[in-house]
Amino acid sequence: MTDHIDVALIGGGIMSATLGTMLQQLEPEWDIRIYERLGDVARESSNPWNNAGTGHAALCELNYTPEKPDGSIDITNAVKVNEQFQVSRQFWSYLVNEGRLPDPSAFLSATPHMSLVWGRDNVDYLRKRYEALRDHPLFAGLEFSEDPAVIRRWAPLTIPGRSKTQPVAATWIAAGTDVDFGALTRMLIDGLVDGGAQLHLEHRVTSISRDRDGGWLLKLRHEVGFTPLQVRAKFVFVGAGGHALPLLQKSGIPEIRGFGGFPVSGQWLRTDNPEVVAQHSAKVYGKASVGAPPMSVPHLDTRVVDGETSLLFGPYAGFTPKFLKTGSWFDLFGSIRWHNLIPMMQVGLRNLDLLKYLIGELLASRSAKEESLRAFYPNARGEDWYELTAGQRVQIIKKDPEKGGVLQFGTEVVAAADGSIAGLLGASPGASTAAPIMLDVLERCFPDKIEAWRPQLQRMVPSYGTTVSADPELAKKLLTETASALAISR
């Protein structure tokens, strides 16, 4: 027997949860089903211990504000990422006001965001970054200091034990957040199920093929008992993290040709020592090492998970051919096709610095990891910290007409020309920008419905169709309203 449904969401993470929630608000009568191969949702990239939970708004992440050859700071990407996070905040605020997210404190905590640098050149860079951002409406409240006493007040662990002759600088902003994307995912999916959607755990998608009516035939296997089944869906979204690439390859859509993936693993150091945790309440980001991918920018983070506060430091990048933490050692090799082989080879040859960096991280001893921690927290004691495996990320490799192939950081939606199937590739900033990414999916896959949906889309996201940063008064209004709805400081 084959069920006929409207929407199949593959993967029980924040992306599927967000898209499903939007579609249920727009089309309450649609039959929506979520298929997750593990025994619970939010077990991979959306799990709070697999990501930093920063709520990426470019308030502290220095990789979004590169220094140009003339010495000026390019804030284009920082503004874009902040804009995207504001869309997510608006969507969450709407759901809070509608009672779909009854307790925002269960997934969101007010946590100041900081950037911390040392060395004269880095101090000069941070000062220029601050001057480029401070008057922008989305970065209002950003502060800068080179005074160790001020920095110690912002983040007490970062100054004691540091050389008094070392130039140091930091920026600080109260409007930052810590987000438990696991809790948020579970709340969204609970709301979906309450609204009539079906959640199928321990269901692995084994095949995706075109149906004769233009939809998609999904063959699945129940992991308990290995029972095969199949469904026909009018629309399919592949929100399966690193496994999205091989699933889209199974679909055979021409749009996935030329895409490959480069997996990057990672580790954290974590402490739950209450004496240490009580002295730090911020997310403190530094500068990335040469050759490091953006997701490996070092940071000392306050994390609030299930009401308990811990500190994370890292991530320490590494390599494994798996596309998921629970994936297969053959994932990378199984994703190689004739159409992505050259792009993958070209990327490998042109990113030797990245390969060297990853090898160094793999070979790093525990003492070397602790020394990296002490660059942020000079008096850190190794016995207070233990290692924790971070989430697996798959960076995008794609064809390039000039270079043959490029390694692309960030995320990218890949959709069939007719909009009947779409998937998300890539990593950071990922979860923080789930709402704008899913709005992009709606526009690309349902262009004939957007005008009819527009009033509801604007209720869900008041800035939909506009640019927040282009209107300082609108930016101030929306920032204030969402902070109030989400019960976080502005």
UniProtKB/TrEMBL annotation:
GO MF assignments: (S)-2-hydroxyglutarate dehydrogenase activity; L-malate dehydrogenase (quinone) activity
Record keyword Oxidoreductase present: yes
E.C. number(s) listed in UniProt: 1.1.5.4
UniProt keyword terms in alphabetical order: FAD, Flavoprotein, Oxidoreductase, Tricarboxylic acid cycle
Pfam families per the UniProt record, alphabetical: Mqo
Source organism, top-level taxon: Bacteria
Enzymatic class: oxidoreductase
InterPro entries named among the record's database cross-references: FAD/NAD-bd_sf, MQO
Catalytic activity: (S)-malate + a quinone = a quinol + oxaloacetate
Listed name of the protein: Probable malate:quinone oxidoreductase
